[in-house]
Amino acid sequence: MMTYEExxxxxxxxxxxxxxxxxxxxxxVLAGExxxxxxxxxxxxxxxxxxxxxxxxxxxxxxxxxxxxxxxxYRYRPEIIACFNLxxxxxxxxxxxxxxxxxxxxxLKIAREHSEVSRYAYEYNNLAVTYLAQQDYEKALEVIRxxxxxxxxxxxxxxxxxxxxxxxxxxxxxxxxxxxxALAKCVAYRGREILPEEVRIVxxxxxxxxxxxxxxxxxxxxLREHLPQLHAEEFLASCKVLFDCGMDAGDNAxxxxxxxxxxxxxxxxxxxxxxxxxxxxxxYEYAKANGNTALMLAALEKKETYYALVLARKEEVHVxxxxxxxxxxxxxxxxLESEAGANRTKTRFxxxxxxxxxxxxxxxxxxxxxxRDCRSDEARVDDCLGKIDISAKHLLSLVNxxxxxxxxxxxxxxxxxxxxxxxxxxxxxxDIVRIQAEQSGLRLYTDHDDVHDADLLGSxxxxxxxxxxxxxxxxxxxxxxxxxxxxxxxxxRTADTAVYAFTIRDTGIGMTQDxxxxxxxxxxxxxxxxxxxxxGGTGLGMSIVSQLVQKMNxxxxxxxxxxxxxxxxxxxxxxxxxxPPAAGPEKEASTDLHGKRLLVVEDNELxxxxxxxxxxxxxxxxxxxxxxxxxxxxxxxxxxGCDAILMDLMMPVMDxxxxxxxxxxxxxxxxxxxxxxxxxxxxxxxxxxxxxxxGMNAHISKPLFKDVMLRTIARFV
Length: 717
Hints:
717 residues; Rossmann fold
């Protein structure tokens, strides 16, 4: 996914590139950027703008319409107003004036909703132009005055456009003094540089209406000189003023010159039907004024030909529009169906989760009741405590799955490339799952012979999560007395990268091919409710695996036979670490904290009690602080006597990150070296990184496990 900064930089680089290269870039962005981001929105706008500037107005409209229909799904940016305006201007150029006003007014409404006052003048000006084209001069004047009223907060370039249009409107209303004043202001705002042809047109009309013969002839000569270089719209506007003035003055020579100019244009571009239609309309009007019946009939015949061509093109455009609207409608329908399906799945998931979460909670509360009634029966109490431990860990597993899925769906997972040793990582995974397998009465076979000094760069954390989820699946759905076989194979290796395939095969219940193809990697999915009831779980594990594999640029394949078992193969690429950290001798972690003084910072009293008990049972002296600010003061009171700090993160007054930074910057003795260990429920890689960046040494995830906490502390004290 491209960031907006990357997109903007690339646009700047392509500013002077060939048109086709720029078109290809924006088309590729729209094809690849499927999320409704600022990048996708700006790609729509800039892509359409390329076609608009090239005079291909219909293509510009076709590009922008899907965005216009769905614009509320995007985060607001001022360019949304520009998108509506651009579609409105396109409609104006194809003479769909009512439609043009609709789009422009929608843009104005959005501008008002977001107080984009600098856009008001722009929108009112464009509205006025549509009325001007329809010769509704009174309405055009009313609207252009609104544009003039909002000029002080608009871009100064806009002033030239507004005064130019005001000048033309006043000319048509014979308010010539106002027209002269408006044109002078237009020129003062660099109108001759910004819109030279538009200024020449209104100047021609004004000098004619004012009776300035010399000025009028000069203006006509300027228009004639520039006529061959103009686009169709500017060409027609210039021809119109020359023709209208010539007809009004009875200047047949000028009228015939204009008709010849339009004929010449059509010889160069015979497909420009609008020019042909205007030429024959003018020819008919001229012939009628001169009583030339033969010329009138010839003009009418040609006019009908061009009119039929225009209608055919309009019908072709209409057919394309209908087809496009049907496709857009189908996409919207599919999106709604997908959303409805997702909602049904999530509703089913919530119902299942309600049951699955209540089950371990019921076990915990039930066993506590048994303990209260049987305190003197030590064996019974020990049995209950073991069952509470199992239920609590099961509950934690359910919550972790939901949090992982939420993190993935919000696209906030960060895959860091950090040094790790593959053999050690696999050994850690083996330690975790071997106990689970043995408790379930399963045999575990491993073959990792393909690992040779595999010092890599990647996310060991997410690799573990992938493998543990696959193992958990293999354990959960296996048969009594079954087995799990794992195999690691080095698929390929270059000087800088290595690709590994991790295969986990079980002897479980297996899956149908239909479930594998259509549902296995869906969130909240299990093959049937009976399996869910029998085997438990959220149905999130495989979706988490699939999305993590994708984020790590890997692949996952599945083979399964119902009643015989399943085999999952995950293939992942890693960069080779050519400068791995030296492996020092393993220090035996002592859990004896006698003589150690620890500052515990925790705002929750129950969590404080738990941490205090664990630490004191290991012999430590505990100093307590209930927010970050109190922790900073407690450390400052006796910095030399503090062997380590255990820091909660989310606290009132001052959070743990700020407290860690404040301690490091305090200038107190040992402020830079005292170990600060985070202990928080925020347990993702980016959370750990944030802790380290704020000056902490390590991170312990809640809920706290005594052995993990003591081993972590022992690394630093």
